[in-house]
Amino acid sequence: MKNLPSIYASIILCLVLVGCSKNDDVTVLRIAHTVDVEHSTHKAIQHMAERLAFYSGNTMEIKIYPYSQLGGEREVLEQLQMGSLAMTQVSAATIEGFVPEMKLYAVPYLFRNREHKWKVLESDIGQELLDLTEKAHFVGLGYYDSGSRSFYMTEDRVESPADLVGRKIRVMQSQSSVKMVQSLGGAAAPISMGELYAALQQGVVDGAENNPPMFYLSHHYEISKYYVLDEHTSIPEVIIASKYIMSKLSEQQRTWLNMAVKDSVKVQRELWLALEQKSLTEVEKAGVEIIYPDKQPFIDALEPLYKSLEGTIISDYLERVNDMAVQGESNE
Fold first, then answer.
1. Residue 325 and residue 310: Cα distance in Å, rounded?
2. Furthest-apart CA pair in the chain: how many Å?
3. The whole model's pTM is what?
4. pLDDT digit string (tens) for 1-27?
5. Tell me: the pLDDT tens digits for 59-108?
6. Residue 148 class from Cβ within 10 Å (0-12 exposed, 13-18 middle, 19+ buried)?
7. Strand ordering across the sheet containing 168-171
8. Which pairing describes strands 168-171 and 149-153: parallel, antiparallel, or unpaired?
9. How far is 177 from 187, CA to CA, in rounded Å?
10. Secondary element (H or E) of residue 190
């Protein structure tokens, strides 16, 4: 296909995507993601596929490509923009490279607790940020839970920011993540998830940061024997679609898809909580020391980062998120 003029290549890709493999009455949507098939996200997307088939009377089908088969998160997003892929699920931190307002979700200790997080995601704030993805040729459909991210280290116990000074920490390909680690005194190393196991094993990095299920399912616990539950960020996953492909669906088809996505969101939240607890239990059985540090020193060390956000594109959102937390506390 690389030898064809780009316009013909795009047409072929779109025909593969929304055309019919065996039955001309079936619309096939391809969805790719980067996680393991045992992950709650993959299982929720399978549920989405089942519900879409049910709602559409088997006239719509979702074909799933898990575990980075079609590339990493950024590559998959670029395929959505071109219309060669229908949907994906990616971290909001990855989308910030396309939609700067998504940097909001990468602010450390943004949410007071899980209840506050979902209150925000299900509010006008959450919907506004989903709507803003349209300017990058996406359609934001909803949020999946991704828990909280914490540090894990191969050889060093970490109980305070001082223990991170000079340590090389893998982060996502996100400027917000880089700045956070730098603010805590570490050296940030943006490395793809697929390369991280080897990087930890070979000592290219001293540690990384992620949520319990990813720490467990990636087998990074085999190398990293200290998991520091500082829970510095709670970045949601975003279910996102190609604006081009969505425009080719009928109104009824879009309604069915939105219904299926909503059903999958509910299932994924339940699956996530169970997987999170299982992951912590299993890594501890495998010999990982789970450390529960005092979070306040981490928050204090991030004060310059918070100051740098004043007057930025997300400052108004930060105020609104904080107001929602205050309101929630006053109602308790």
1. 19
2. 64
3. 0.88
4. 434 344 434 444 444 444 333 356 899
5. 999 999 998 899 988 899 999 999 999 999 999 999 999 999 999 999 99
6. buried
7. 187-190, 168-171, 207-210, 149-153, 226-233, 289-291
8. unpaired
9. 11
10. strand 187-190
